[in-house]
Each structure stands twice: as structure tokens, then as C-alpha cells.
Amino acid sequence: MDVTNGVPGVNAADPTNFEEFWPYYVSQHLHPATRAIHVGATTAALACGVAGFALFRPALVLAAPVVGYGPAWASHFAIEKNKPASFGHPFWSFRADLRQVRRFYAGKLEADVQRVRQALRLAPDERTLAEAGPRLRAA
User: Fold this and answer.
1) Helix spans in 2-57 (H)
2) Cβ–Cβ < 8 Å for 25, 86
3) Helix crossing, 129-138 with 109-120: angle to 10°?
4) Beta bridge partners of 8
């Protein structure tokens, strides 16, 4: 993840490909509770979808997006105080959701979060971009 020139879409130019989008996605999920909700919801949605296919239960397959996106979107409004990245980049966001889950379970997600936090020069008490907003806008 290259954030040497800032985080695309936050304090650098907008992302033009998925690899540039990934740091932006991470920046939109800085609060630990938001990440936990996303990982839990995406994991539950994947399990729901797999179970639906395995058990030939179409209702479970149809429920999977609601199980995944419902809590995740709510966490953006209630905790992160931002708009879900999927509203602007649905396909990259879905791919990033899956990467976030993989990196979480592999123990690698926190390193990405810390790189993004450093690139944004966030203070330890700034847990979201909304909390750092006035300072980031002044820079």
C-alpha cells in the first residue's frame, strides 16, 4: 500500500484504480468498532450465502446482502460519521470488504490502518476522519 503522497481521495488525488482505492477504503474504516462490525457482517453474509447455496435455500442467499450491508452501513452513519464507500464505488468497495476480512483474519489489517493513520497525521485520540476533520481541512 503506497501512501507516501497521502491517502487517495482524502489528502491526495482521487483513486484511479483498486490499489489506490484500498488506502481510501481503510481511511473510511478507522474506528475499531466500524472495522469489527464490517468484518462480522461480511463474515455472516458469506456464511449466509454459502449456507443458502449448500442447503438450496434461496431466501438465505437473498438475505446475505442485507446481513452484510445493513450493519456495515449503519456503522458508517452511527460510528464513523461518513458515507459508506460503496455509495460511490460499489465494486471496489465489495472487493475491499473481502480484502478487509482476509487481512483481519490474517492479522494484517491493523498494519494497513496504522499506515493510513500515519499518512493522515492523525493524533492517537482521533479515531475517525470526522474527529480529525477540522484539523485536516485546515492543513
Assistant:
1) 18-27, 32-54
2) no
3) 30
4) 12
Structural contact between residues 97 and 103, judged by C-beta atoms closer than 8 angstroms: no
Q: Quick one: how far is CA 26 from the chain centroid?
A: 5
Per-10-residue mean pLDDT of the chain, 139 residues long, equals: 92 95 97 98 98 98 98 97 95 98 98 97 94 70
At 126, give phi and psi (nearest 5°): -90, 100
* Interatomic CA distance for residues 54 and 60, integer angstroms: 10
Query: Full-prediction pTM beyond 0.85?
Result: yes
C-alpha cell at 85: 464507500
Per-domain residue ranges for the chain? 18-138
How far is residue 93 from each of residues 26, 85, 89, 123, 137, measured CA to CA in Å?
10, 6, 6, 26, 25
* Residue 63: CB atoms within 10 Å: 18
Contact present, 83 and 33 (Cβ < 8 Å): no
Amino acid, res. 49: G
